[in-house]
Design goal:
Blueprint lengths: L3 H19 L3 H21 L2 H22 L20 E2 L10 H10 L4 H22 L11 E5 L5 H14 L8 E5 H5 L6 H13 L3 E5 L13 H15 L5 E6 L1 H9 L2 H4 L4 E5 L4 H14 L3 E2 L3 H19 L6 H19 L4 H4 L2 H4 L1 E2 L7 H12 L1
Parallel strand pairs: 2-5, 2-6, 3-4, 4-5, 7-8
Antiparallel strand pairs: 1-3
Helix pairs in contact: 1-2, 2-3, 4-6, 8-9, 12-13, 12-14
Length: 389
Amino acid sequence: MPNEELKKEYRTNRETALKYLEQNNYNQAMIFLQRALKSAVVLAEQSSGSERQAYVEQAMSIKNMIDKVGGKVVKSTPCAGAKTGGQNNAKADDSSSKPAPSLESALEELNSLEGLHNVKNRVMQIIQQIRINKFREEQGLPIYASSNHMIFKGNPGTGKTTVARIMGDIFSALGLLSKGHLVEVNARVGLVGKYVGHTAQQTQEVVDSALGGVLFVDEFYTLYKADSGSDFGKEAIDVLLTAVENNRADFVVILAGYSDEMDAAMKSNVGFASRFNWTIEFEDYAPKEMYNILIKLCKKQKFVFEEDPEVVRTAITDRLAELKSARGKYFGNARDVRMLFEKMMARQNIRLGQLSVRELNDKNVLSTLKICDLPTVEELVQSLTDNQS
């Protein structure tokens, strides 16, 4: 039977690679695609039957992505102090090759994101408070000492990581961060060690790599779970608490996770919660917003639909609504939309496989999707379940 920790590592690396691909950050995408491929191969070797076949297919799919991304990778050096992965599984964005962000460009990127109206309004409130404080300081008025550490609450696939990266650019443009880079880490996988004393060292290394930028800790609430009689999660929390208290300037920590679980975690440690001034709720995407996300993915890959736009809109929004109902609390919002898109491409490949070479030498044929390429809800649920097993 495949190792559960290896399965989780595979899923994390694959999802991270896809996020970087969406951001056109091909260097970082390549790093995590290669890690995901290595894990998929090992999982295939450890599995049998249909599970083995599923991992073989996933490994082949990742290999194809690596081949496509390979030509777009450029050599660059990560920001000083930022780690691109290793034993602590921390992941840093590659900021060295891009110019210093302006507030206007950061806000333009934020506003280009689909939906997230509550998030965008909250971010503007944060920016205005920071700007007003700067004016007060220039006029010699007292400034209430507070941190810029934040809490992001919401379901998976609602844009938390993307907005965290943009917040790094915003804080950098406002002069609050010297680098503005993002270091992303899964709380339980990236911070908790395997023996006494290891967790504190590992967590401190992650903190040090994020100084001058943003440390994004996903699934923070998992640090409060019992750990086979040990208290390694609390060890990580203690290091983070010290970090947020001692680094109010040039460092921002964003804790993220499901809303209910994050509320419970904060209530269990009032002192910790008091260090985080800003809380942003990320709501699920509406059917129309998910449809728009899918269409953007299609346009990026130069796909068009054969049928009438309104017929296509109805078919897709209905299928997404059915998927959300079937998945319940496990629905992954934009992640599941991306999976739907990938399945549509796979079904198109099968359909086009019946055509002759002459017919395939037609750009219109290769770039046309049909409603019949939409996978069934059962197919999607099974595929998503396989990826999470």
